[in-house]
Amino acid sequence: MEKAQRHAAFQQNTKPKRRVSRVILALALIVLAVAAFFAWRILSRPASLFAPTDILVLPKQTALTPALPVPDEPEQEDVPAAASAPQVQGNILNILLMGIDAREDGSTTSGTMPHTDVMMVVAVNFDTNSVDLITLPRDLLTTVPGHYGFYKLNGVFNVGLGGQFKTTGQANDLKDGFELTCRAGEMWLGGVSIPYYYALDFQAVMDVVDAIGGIDYDVDQAFTSMSGKHSYKKGMQHLDGDAVMGYLRIRRSADGLDSSRTARQRRMMVAIFNKLKTEGKLSQIPALISAANSGIYTNTTLIQTTALVNYAANLAPEDIRTHSLYGEIGKIEFYWRFAYVDQQNRLDVIRQVYGFDADTMGTCSRQYERWLFSVGFLTLKRLRQIEKVLTRVQELKDAGTAFSEEQIALYASCYNSYLALYRTFEDGSDTLAHLYAANPWREKKKGSRTSAQKAENKKISAQEAEIKSNLLSLSESAHEATQALASSIRYQNLTWSLSGRWYTDPDIEEVIVAFG
User: Fold this and answer.
1) What 3-state class would DSSP assign to 458?
2) Within 13 Å, how many C-alpha atoms sit on residue 28's CB side?
3) Which of 22, 121, 310, 466 counts the highest number of beta carbons within 10 A?
């Protein structure tokens, strides 16, 4: 009897332990199954770990909608239906690599703001098992999706941060700047999405190079290390992190072209990859990123990074192609050196890498820059001023203000004149941008132009003059209507002229970025 009772008690006591053991075993099996699943995806289906690459519809600035009745609002011309949207040919993953001109403490090595002085798109084609490296010029004249103004591409990062640079070493501190740079990069790739990024500040680059034992590299010109402590001659050299950064930041190339600087960056990227691969050190990359307290930033997961490392281990050097959106470097009215992308080369790169025909972007040209300086900036200034008065009416309406019939009539007159000026500016800008993109020969020396080119140049100049005349005329009538409405609602902050230079006027530049 006692033996039966002891056995029953033993059974009763061991049941909870058995349940716990079974639960632990079940959890372990689930963990192993999940780990095995991700290991399988990492090894055999890395593309499945990433969002698909699409061609995005790029946002455009639009005019304000009226706050009060506008009976005489000009009708908008019908826009023809768009052709079928292009498609990326192949299973391609886009990643933007960025090098930030900053140190760990947030200080910069040049100027008053750190910028993304190195920007390179890594296009991984899972179908062809190849990679394309596309360099985006840091000095590229560009607009910024979702913001107004004209910037260098390396300053888009600062626009995303509101003109500030603050970091405690956490990835989220600079997230908005990195993501906005990706959006701008998408625009220059014809809308192809760039959902992922890796970014390193200069100290992180030096630390990574030192961690892999430096690089043996055939240097193409003499230079000084980043710290200025060591000099290197042309020829095969062993470069540590300090030397690599000094080499990558050579400002003046032997041929005087910035394209040589970006070519060095691509060659160094390939050299680092080759060393990591030949010495079996690619597997160190996830650990380096995970262990970094600051200086290395990414929006990828550890699993995604591991998948990319495994994929890279199977690449041969000949599987990596390099490209650049190169172009003319000019310094005219902008006071800084800007890059104007060669449109045909840009279209060729997009077609070669992504397999579709993109649209030209004539807004990045020396001709467009001249037009902006001639009348474009002034028109933008005046449009912003009118928008402030119209927005003030919207605010008063939202606050419950009752408007008289006279004020409603003044508003309608102001809004109509604003819309006419806005549409003329947008249409004229688009027209000239297409002409500039189709006629890059205008940037060549006069002696190299043919008679046909001279004739086309004359036509474009005449069209520029006509658009400028229309804008100035509409601007004056809009000024009168805006002044009348502003006086009626007691708005006193109307400024009709540029405040200093265009790049310091907040009506032209949404974010003031210092490049000096």
Assistant:
1) helix
2) 6
3) 121
Query: Would you tell me how many other CB atoms lie within 10 Å of the CB of residue 126?
Result: 16
Q: Which residues contact 322 (CB under 8 A, 6 or more apart)?
A: 132, 133, 135, 263, 266, 267, 270
CA angle centred on 431, ends 350 and 327, rounded to 5°: 40
- For the record, the structure tokens of 106 come out as 């947030």
Q: Cβ neighbours of residue 135 under 8 Å, at least 6 residues apart? A: 119, 120, 262, 263, 265, 266, 322, 323, 324, 325
> What is the pLDDT averaged over residues 479-505?
91
Q: Which residues contact 11 (CB under 8 A, 6 or more apart)?
A: none
Rounded distance between C-alpha atoms, residue 1 and residue 284, angstroms: 66
Strands 130-135 and 320-324: parallel
The Cα diameter of the chain in Å comes to 119
Higher pLDDT, 149 or 454: 149
Reduced to 3 states, what is the DSSP secondary structure of residue 80? coil
pLDDT per position as a tens digit, 203-225 = 888 888 888 889 899 998 898 98
In a 13 Å sphere around the CA of 102, the CA atoms on its Cβ side amount to 26
Q: How many Cβ atoms sit within 10 Å of the Cβ of residue 260? A: 16
